[in-house]
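FIELD: query
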Amino acid sequence: MKKVYGIMVFLLFVVVATALMSEAFLSSYNLENLVRRTALFGIISVGVSFVIISGGIDLSIGSVICLIGCGLPWMLVERQWPLWVALLVVLFVSAAIGLFHGVLITKLKLQPFVVTLCGLLLYRGLTRALTADQTQGFKNEFSGLRTLATGEIAIEHMLVVLGPLLLAAMLLSRVVFLKVGNPKIYVAGFITACVFLVLGLTLKQPQSKIHSIEQTGRQTTVQVQVPEGVSAISIYSLDDEIWKKRATRNMRRNKQGRITFVVNGLYGKTSLLAESDPVFSVPMPWLILFVVIVISVIFLNETIYGRYLLALGNNEEAAQYSGIKTDRMIILAYLICSLLAGLGGMLFVLDVNSAQPSDFGNFYELYAIAAAVLGGCSLRGGEGSILGVLFGTALMQTLRNMIVLVDWIPTHIEYAVIGLVILCGVAVDEIMKKLVDRKRITGKQLVGSKDRSSAGI
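FIELD: result
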């Protein structure tokens, strides 16, 4: 937990420093993009953390993201496959890749570095051959599917969802896995879930309403009554799907507290709706990341298989002698990593709506590995924290954002920063290991000397 606290403090320092150096950092547009990117990269970082905890490494994540990210629109748009078939293929391919890596590592005793490095080249080459190296995208189709990555959920609705999810996670941990753990954790979780529910049910934005509508030529002028405390509203047509929303921010009300819209087209009062925008909206990938984190935390900390992974990373030979089926656990770790990489690849392409096989997902594995290492996952294996991985991901994305926004920082040093971060993380991990080992040896020597003195030797 000390590593998690350290990364939290470092993240807070970077956030404050970036906000002081760039006014654009705290803009709603930038923060929304930062939060969304953190969620997307967080999903693949959680996946690679399982492999690192087991003592392995996966360098093929970026190419798996490319394969899935280019393959999904290729199947849906170019080949006109049904949506459910394409999603099943994505799931199957992602699982097959993880199984393939695990079998090569466990049965043929190949090094994880070599296997996944070959996978990095293999999957990107297959993607370029499959798509004829042409850019793939959804065009204007599959808008419903794209809301998984581009959609937002109001904070009050998010809290209402998170409350029952947290209670369900604790119930799953207690009933299914038959493990009580620390009672304080359950008490804190129950209180947090109740707070989420209360806030979600009470946090409401004052509602706006249409005051008047006037039509001139082919234009409609709409006056909306805006209550105090509302910072943004949206107006949209219930009949015309060509435009769904026209939002305004930093609104200037008149003396009566009204704001005027001018809309092209003729609309009646019954076909237009005005509503206050949420107090704060959470990108949809964060809800997906929350589910992934809850499941991962329960699996790693509350199940015997999570303990097996930690034991495997600490000492594979000892774990094998103690009866743990190490081959199965290694395969499981790579399977989880590839499945989450596939999920990440799907969300990435749904977010940007376009993927170029030659560079889509390039170096994403470095961001994932760096986030896991910063979050407390030891590259030697046997140690890791899912919560720490989340903070490590947020730190990496904030550093990227700082490089882009701060004028005097050259933008082309991004990868140098990533390399330096990984190097510092590994160095700190090694230094901490040596300090702990030295303290343990010193403690044993002190105990031995006391035993000898008490025996009169």
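FIELD: remark
The chain has three domains: 2-151+282-432, 154-202, 209-277.
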